[in-house]
Design goal:
79% of the residues lie in helices and 0% in strands. The termini are far apart. It contains 13 helices and no strands. It is mainly α. The chain has helices spanning 3-11, 14-24, 27-43, 48-58, 61-73, 77-87, 90-102, 107-116, 119-128, 138-163, 173-188, 192-207, 215-241.
Length: 242
């Protein structure tokens, strides 16, 4: 079967449509976030071609927004890399989980799966397939969800990049971006551990706000990850005792 035939067969799968449909509910927040990020890239000093390249190649909104102030302030490269690494560290956890479903695929196919992976797709996928073993319906469902998610991000992001020079800074798009991120983050807070980790991250970020080069982001991530790991280790023992 050719690549075109394979893509057509995938598109017609009911699970592909289901995956896309289940991402529609959160696509408004993703689009708002993408639009703000697109404007922010150009406002931070990136040229339009470079901003387009960053949007299409990096495809990681959180690390893009975290890196932009560092790029604008001329921060050292190690700070830029460390920030992006810490912000995207969660994808290591996602990959460990998704390996149980997609680990049997060829390398190039696994790499494409990894590029399109996103937070909310991870949440929706595990809700749809809680049992960690391969299933023929999983790949169509995954591609349906990530295709909708990718388009919901990239189209507004590109619009924001192209229209950034015509957007007045007085519009307060940064605040709109914060609201979009808060809405998306809320969907990921599913239990006590994630709520506590998020609260600790927020407190740490505020407490370390005075650090230069936005290093408070690194501090908040490190503290939140540490607290989350400690709670994951401690709570099962507590349940066992009860």
């Amino acid at each position: 079967m050719s690549r075109t035939e394979l893509t057509g067969a995938l598109w017609r799968q009911p699970e592909f449509r289901r995956g896309a449909r289940e991402m529609m509910g959160v696509s408004l927040g993703i689009s708002a976030w993408g639009l703000v990020t697109g404007v922010a890239m150009v406002k931070s000093g990136l040229s339009v071609p470079l901003a387009l390249l960053m949007s299409l190649v990096v495809f990681a909104g959180s690390s893009q927004l975290a890196a932009l102030p560092l790029i604008a302030s001329g921060a050292p490269m190690w700070v830029l890399w460390a920030t992006a690494f810490c912000v995207n560290l969660r994808f290591v956890i996602f990959s460990v989980q998704w390996r149980m479903y997609f680990g049997h695929l060829p390398l190039l196919q696994r790499m494409s799966v990894g590029y399109f992976a996103a937070d909310l797709n991870y949440v929706a996928f595990l809700k749809r397939f809680p049992e960690p073993k391969p299933n023929p319906a999983q790949l169509p469902y995954y591609w349906g969800g990530v295709a909708w998610n990718w388009a919901s991000w990239q189209i507004p992001s590109i619009i924001g990049i192209l229209a950034a020079n015509h957007v007045p800074t007085e519009w307060g798009l940064g605040f709109a971006g914060v609201l979009a991120l808060l809405g998306l983050s809320y969907t990921l807070l599913k239990d006590r551990n994630t709520w506590v980790s998020a609260a600790v991250a927020g407190c740490a970020a505020v407490a370390a706000y005075g650090l230069p080069l936005r290093l408070n982001i690194l501090v908040s991530i490190a503290v939140a990850v540490t607290v989350g790991l400690l709670m994951e280790h401690w709570l099962p023992e507590r349940r066992a005792e009860q």
